[in-house]
Amino acid sequence: MNIIEIKTEEQLEEVLPVLQQLRTTLTKEEARVLFRRMKEEHYQLFSLMNENGEAVSLAGVAVGTNFYNNKHVFVYDLVTAETYRSKGYGETLLSYIERWGKEQGCKCIALTSSMQRVDAHRFYERAKYKKVSYSFWKELK
């Protein structure tokens, strides 16, 4: 197993099928445009690759600072390819992100998870993450 940072649009295209298992409406073109913009805003995408060089798990993160969390890692995307789930790959990648966050001087990791993603909630709870707040969302028209 090898963890790499996805830095180019070509690399993004290779791992996109895994990302689309989480972001199901994301098209290839939308992914390219957003990836460029997100990288400008310090988003980083990491991929856990198997021995065959295939993406198994992805974690999209950014380091930020605010009054609530101080300097922290925010996990925007965390997904393991369906055929590889429940085999420890997501845990391996999340542990890597935790170590990486410490190296960046972060105090904690924060993330949100959709209400219906009960399996994901159990995953985070097993990894000792705590439910600390509700996340609210409103479309701006």
From TrEMBL:
Pfam families: Acetyltransf_1 (PF00583)
GO molecular function terms noted in the UniProt entry: acyltransferase activity, transferring groups other than amino-acyl groups
UniProt keyword annotation of Transferase present: yes
Lineage: superkingdom: Bacteria
N-acetyltransferase domain sequence ranges: 1-141
CDD domains: NAT_SF
Swiss-Prot/TrEMBL keywords: Acyltransferase, Transferase
Official protein name in the record: GCN5-related N-acetyltransferase
Organism of this sequence: Bacillus cytotoxicus
